[in-house]
């Protein structure tokens, strides 16, 4: 579990094949080394990975075939900048929002608008997660907890303060660059409660939460 607050921007040292569609990722880093242990979780551009080796200036993580297939690590190159965040500890402040470290979709940067020292970034909106995105709602882009500024059927934008732009890999993006997206877990759980499927609640345990129930308790007003 993560918060989407980036602690450090690392760099890809190498991606080495270790089996069919599987790889070992080696990154340069410093800040996230504190209290690091083998087996710890580390979010790399929003993907929860497990630390398998490290030294004073680098860390190694293994990429499963599933991760390679559904992320941008299949095409990552040496020197690429990646956002890093250690797992949330019990008692830590939740400064961003709840981030699982999963990739729900890949989006493309379609426009960058500079407004003084601030930036507005416009991204394509993948159809598979569009129903989870709401105006002023939370979204994770390359592991960064961000707020939707504007929203349409085909794209969305985020407003970036100078600190977030300079201290993450957003500053390395160009029009056409692709990013990892993770939708808000609360939106996904709400859908699961309101629209049970074959893999959801079974007969006799259907959710009592409905649109009427939410409206009656002050949601959606």
Uncertain residue segments = none
Helix content: 10-25%
Overall geometry: globular
Strand order of the largest sheet: 1-2-5-4-3-6
- Estimate the mean pLDDT confidence: 88
Strand content of the residues, in percent? 35-45%
Major sheet description: 6 strands, antiparallel, barrel
Count of DSSP H/I helices: 4
**What is the radius of gyration computed over CA atoms, rounded to a whole number of angstroms?**
19 Å
SS elements, strand count: 12
Structural class: mainly beta
Distance between the termini: 30 Å
Element-by-element helix/strand order = EEEEEHEEEEEEHEHH
What does this structure look like?
Helix content is 12%, strand content 38%. With 221 residues, the chain is mainly beta. The strands form 2 sheets. A 6-stranded antiparallel barrel has the order 1-2-5-4-3-6. The two termini are 30 Å apart.
Considering the chains and any ligands shown, give keywords for the structure.
single chain, mainly beta, six-stranded antiparallel β-barrel
Blueprint (SSEs and pairs):
Elements: E1 8-19, E2 22-28, E3 41-44, E4 47-54, E5 58-63, H1 65-70, E6 81-86, E7 105-115, E8 118-124, E9 138-141, E10 144-151, E11 155-160, H2 162-166, E12 178-183, H3 185-194, H4 211-216
Antiparallel strand pairs: 1-2, 1-6, 2-5, 3-4, 3-6, 4-5, 7-8, 7-12, 8-11, 9-10, 9-12, 10-11
Summarize the model shown:
Helix content is 12%, strand content 38%. It is built from 4 helices and 12 strands.
